[in-house]
Amino acid sequence: MRSLLDFYTMPRPGGLPMNILVYGLLLAGCWGYALWRGGAPERIGATILGIGSVLTAMAASNVAISFKSVETGILVVDLAASVAFLALALRADRFWPLWVAAFQILGTAGHGVKYVDPEVLRRTYAFIIVFWSYLMIALLVIGTWRHQQRVARLGSDHSWSIWKSG
Amino acid sequence: MDTARLNRLTEQQRVCLRLVYAHMTSKEIAPLLGIEPGSVDQHIKGAMRILDVADRRSAAKMLAEHEKRVRPSPVAAIAMHEDQIDYDAGARREPILPLPWEGIRPTHVGWRKRLAWIAAIAIGAALTFGALIAAAEAFTRPMRL
Fold first, then answer.
1. Which of A18, A19, B34, B67 has the fewest CB neighbours in a 10 Å radius?
2. Cβ–Cβ gap A146/B118 under 8 Å
């Protein structure tokens, strides 16, 4: 029996699988909106997400064997993105990067599941890695929208927090 | 008439007064204009003498109101706006949850609390995610032994 996830990820004749198409469109839309309308944290977040997604696609092994074992290339990209989002979350005068950093760290931890138990189905492994990216796109859009609302209401919006280290 | 006095202000004095009106101190104004804080004070004192007022806020206000009448400048417009709203009200209140509740801002939250928040979100999300997967599993294979 075909599940929704099957339908979403199966290769389509003469085109990209639905999941790549949908994620690509969502990412492009969110990326453009955040760069066009966001403050500094939104633009940096969109850049990390955009570069991370493109690098993930490049680092993934060939479709025939992808996600059958731990995807080391994707793991490295995920680790780098975790560090970047963590730095953003500590400094930005925003709440959304805290959530994005947490989700990115969870996605990265997903590789650990496959490492600990190689029996995990490749589709399940791919799902627990990729799932969080959709949430991150949604958060970035909400963050950019709320930034715009503050600009409209207050005339400007602080980008960075002013807490002293230590 | 005040207009005659206001017209005698130099451009440098006007720039300083506009920034004073935007609630900036001499130390904050100096780097923007590339001059020493002492020079900023001199410009402002000169302007106060010309306008015959005792403090810089009054001088700044006189110029702002004059400029609003003549031609609303963007700086004066922003400054007027800032007078009416409490810009940092959200930043002064201590957030408990990492949520923008009632316009609250994380401006003064240090890195320890932020890391704790990130950990709490990650744990909460992982538990929710796990529960959803377990529920889906239970519903799709009810009779598995």
1. B34
2. no
| Residue B128 structural domain | 91-140
CB contact under 8 A, B122 and A162: no
Look at chain B and count its residues.
Answer: 145
Best to test chain B binding among A82, A94, A142, A163 (most B CBs inside 10 Å): A163
Alpha-carbon span B82 to B70, nearest angstrom: 20
What was the ipTM of the complex prediction? 0.89
Residue A56 sits in which domain range? 41-145
What are B87-136's pLDDT values in tens digits? 566 777 788 899 988 778 898 888 999 999 999 999 999 999 989 888 87
Instruction: Choose the closest CB to A162 out of B82, B107, B126.
Output: B107
Both B110 and B126 in one domain: the answer is: yes
Burial B61-73 (b: 16+ CB within 10 A, else e): bbbbebbeeeeee
This prediction's pTM: 0.69
In chain A, the number of structural domains is 1
Q: Do B100 and A101 touch (CB under 8 A)?
A: no
Q: Is B41 exposed, middle or buried (0-12, 13-18, 19+ CB in 10 A)?
A: middle
Token pair of A32 as six digits: 């453009």
Residues from chain A that touch B105, judged by Cβ atoms under 8 A, are 93, 158
Compute the C-alpha angle A4/A8/A12, nearest 5°.
Answer: 130
Please judge whether A146 and B107 are an interchain contact, meaning their C-beta atoms are less than 8 angstroms apart. no
